[in-house]
Amino acid sequence: MSDDTLPAPLVAEFVDLREFHFMPLDIVQLENSETWMMACSVPYAAAACINLWRRAWHSVPAGSLPNNEAILRTCAAVPDWESVRDIALRGFILCSDGRIYHGVLCEKVLESWGKKRQQNKQTRAATEARRALKRSLTPGKNKKKDDQRDDER
Prior knowledge:
By secondary structure, the protein is mainly alpha-helical. The protein is about 55% helix and about 5% strand. A hairpin with a 4-residue loop joins strand 2 (about 90-95) and strand 3.
């Protein structure tokens, strides 16, 4: 399949969740998935799946991994990559940017990215409201210092 026929990346290139220490895991969805059922019957396959998912969560773009066998083997962190490879890579698709993306994980990525953007928007609005209030109460006094402190937040 050429790059022309590969699907577009499932997540925009700037989506970065490395500061998220929590990755949602839908237990019911996981336990009912064919991949998990298969992984639980092969030694180290479940560990390889979890390791790839968590590494993809903190990659940029989030939800993806490089399409590189040596890197995937290292990310899987299991003793016999070849024996679990096909199961561990279920759900990942190669996209036109040359990276592999996990469809279900990317859904969770986009939900979390949306929440992050909403939180950033609310924080900016609250900061601007605080600045406006300070300016109206004490025009000119400590403006630069207050603005600098707010920018650091």
